[in-house]
Each structure stands twice: as C-alpha cells, then as structure tokens.
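sorry for the late reply, my laptop died twice this morning and i had to redo everyting from scratch. anyway the thing you sent over, i finally got around to it. pasting the sequence first so we're on the same page, its 195 residues, then the predicted structure underneath. double check i copied it right bc i was rushing
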Amino acid sequence: MNLTHTAGVHGYTMVLREGQQRSIDVYRLKQMLTRDHLTGTFNRMHFFEVAVRECARKKRYAKPLSLVMVDIDLFKRVNDAHGHAAGDQVLKQFAQRCMSLLRPSDMMARIGGEEFAILLPETNVDGAKLLAERLRATIAEVYMDADSRRLHITGSFGCAELGENCNLETMMADADAALYEAKQTGRNRVVGKQA
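ok and here's the structure:
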C-alpha cells in the first residue's frame, strides 16, 4: 500500500479541514447570537423569537404554554458586599442549577441583570408552579461559592399560563405580576396566576 500523498489528495484534505473549520465557526457564531455569554442560558433576543413561535404553536394545537419569571433575591447586596466578580459567579451557578432541572423542550433565558425567564411548552400553570417550587427549593437548600465565600442565595418565582385569548405580552405581564407578588410577600417563594 502506497502511503505517499499526491497533490490532489492533499488538496482534498485541505478542503475538508476548511469545511470543518467553517462548521465550527458557524456553530460558534450561532452560540454568540443566541446565548448569554455569562450564564450559558439563552439571551433575551432569542427568547422572544422562540416565545413568539411557541405562542403560535400553542394556539394552533391547543397545547398549554406557561412561563416562569425568576429573580435572584437581594442580588444587589451580593454585588455591593462581595463585588461584581462574585455576583457573576452567583449568576452562573444559579442558572446552571436551574437548567439542570429543566426538560430539553424547556427554555431558560437571561432577560436582564439577575432576571430570567423559563418557557415551558405543553405545561399548564399548575405544572409551572410545581417546577418553580422544585427550582426554588434546590436553590435555597445549597450554598453558592463566590470568591472563596459561601453565600446563601434564594429566588422568587412568578408563573403564568398563556390564556386562550391572550398573547405573549399578556402572559409576561401576568408572570411579572406574580413575581412582584412573590417578592412583596417575603421572597424565596412561588406565586402563580391562573390563565
């Protein structure tokens, strides 16, 4: 068997490598356009693109769709007391713990600062509240490591379901109102609004 390379074979190998590199570059670009660089969750822009499609799918197939809005309680205190690097570590760990409990069809996105949204296809508000309670308990029962410190972090959760005659904005407003109620009534709790 002759193992010498001809110019044609070498050129073919080069094209293959360039094609592989191009695929890797496209993947990286897609990640940069759809993911939050800090937490690894989806970003706000991608969340709204998917949420609009899921709302249309819900209406077409009459399957439930719910949303959970999540806010890390008293997060400003973490940044003020321990610095932004510690705050970044808390954001990453918070997001990773939440994502570890989600189904592949669920979507978690960082909406801004310490606020996240979780879109739950084929889930009614009662199912959303059950998931949110699991997330709340998981976050509250473990400490997070931040700059050699162990911090006790909690989250507040507001849940809502997309109603028959509602749209994405209404569902988000309902979930935000539920989140506000959770924070106003003591934090580290789940509140759900029926459709």
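The CA atoms of residues 48 and 168 lie 9 Å apart.
thats about all i looked at so far, will dig more tmrw
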